[in-house]
Amino acid sequence: MVEEFGLFIGGHWTIPEHAHRFHTRSPSTGEELGHFVAATTADVGRAVTAAREALPAWRALPAPRRGEILLAAARIFRERKEALGRRVTQEMGKVIAEGLGDVQEAIDFVEYMAGEGRRMAGETVPSELPGKFCMTVRQPKGVVAAITPWNFPTAIPNWKIAAALIAGNTVVFKPASSTSLCGAHVVKVYEDAGLPPGVLNLVTGSGGVVGDALLTDPRVNAISFTGGVETGREVYAKGARGLKSVHLELGGKNPQIVLNDAQQDLALEGLLFGAFGSAGQRCTATSRLILEKGIYREFLEKLVARVERLKVGDPLDPSMEMGPVASEDQERKILGYMEAARKEGDRLLTGGRKLTGGAYDRGYFLAPTVFETTHGHRISKEEIFGPVLAVLRVDDFAEAVRVANDVDYGLSSSIYTRDVNVAYQAVDRLEAGITYVNAPTIGAEVQLPFGGIKNTGNGGREAGSVALEEFTEIKTVFVDYSGRLQKAQIDR
Ligand code: TXE
Hey, which of 44, 214, 231, 455 would you mutate to test ligand 1's pocket, going by the most ligand atoms within 8 Å of its Cβ? Predict the structure, then answer.
């Protein structure tokens, strides 16, 4: 079934006259899924106007009341989980269990943020003067632009939208064009939950036009962006010109270290999930296996045997473990990395090719791939964002940490060891926003901060209560109840 959506501006779905249209397609079958409007700069301007106009009433609504609307949205997401999960799988290609997981993460986060409506804590501290009360309160930033990628088409938009809304901001949301259908369904849920008109607006279309219009509109106060590093740099620079608050969540080159004393089967299962889940298209995907030499051969043999048994195919079929990659562009880029690996002399252990024949010919299916590489080669350093695992051999824990850290990214990291001292040393030393011990590099929980260091971002975190930092201004409040003029510093 092909669905059609207009833009959602000021509480109305509209298709502007003479609008250019685009569509999304399933990466596994090529079938058309949805038709959308390519918004113009003027359309974005109207969406920002709607968000501005809705701001005073929305920020005046007590945060617990805003939370009730979020809870209503979470309930609707729950009711629609099955249908929406299928849409995620159809439009983006991750297997159905992960499509449903995408929606579950949205539900978890929206519920969690609804609770923030009754917390949203500030500070109270003593005053240096008698009869004076000092505190901080959180206030919304204003109009927030949420610009999101295709790899988590319901979870990532909700990470931004729910956190922005609970804090009293209004939002203009631009999903990745290739997952506009999921983006539109997310917005529909909030509409059906009773969100007042203009509080959340949807503008579909290209990054170049729609994204740019959001970044340069002076009435947009904050930008929350997830995507690639190069786009992130551009977003940061453009936002900086307008002195906007810009939060960036970018890529990763996440290592899983497996030491000689690790529980090997556990490490292996974790690795398969981390490296090939969502066909490696997660910012936290395991893209490097750093193996200590004592178990190197033995572990690799088991790994290759297991990878060759992974079932790749129709992502709606629950018995499949990996679906297609998300688009032709993704396929081209990933095949390019396989080619680069061969040119640099990396040894292919399994995969390394496009899958062809039968139903494979209708989509972008790649074989799960493992290369033995050398630290410094391209696949050991650059984010591939596909089902390609680079294996590196190290002499000991110290070298494992050195290799793990010697990349431009710092999002997630993992170590498998039975030695608690070594595990904590890894927590100290791994340069990453997230470290897992005896668990894969993926598996974020919404009540904890998510984000990274180096080229992974610009210092902020999403999720957890700290997500509110991105979406609130701190106001410092002094209440002098002494009845006389008191001068800090000067009276002493
Ligand atoms: O991201 P883009 P894409 C990485 C991954 C992937 C690469 C490209 O390596 O292969 O990024 O993916 C909008 N001004 N990650 O093409 O281009 C765009 O329309 C404003 C890592 O999806 O960065 C989309 O809505 N906006 C990542 C969003 O930005 C612009 C997740 C992201 O697009 C814009 C996804 C512009 N000039 C990809 N250009 C992660 N770490 O999770 C594009 N956009």
Answer: 231
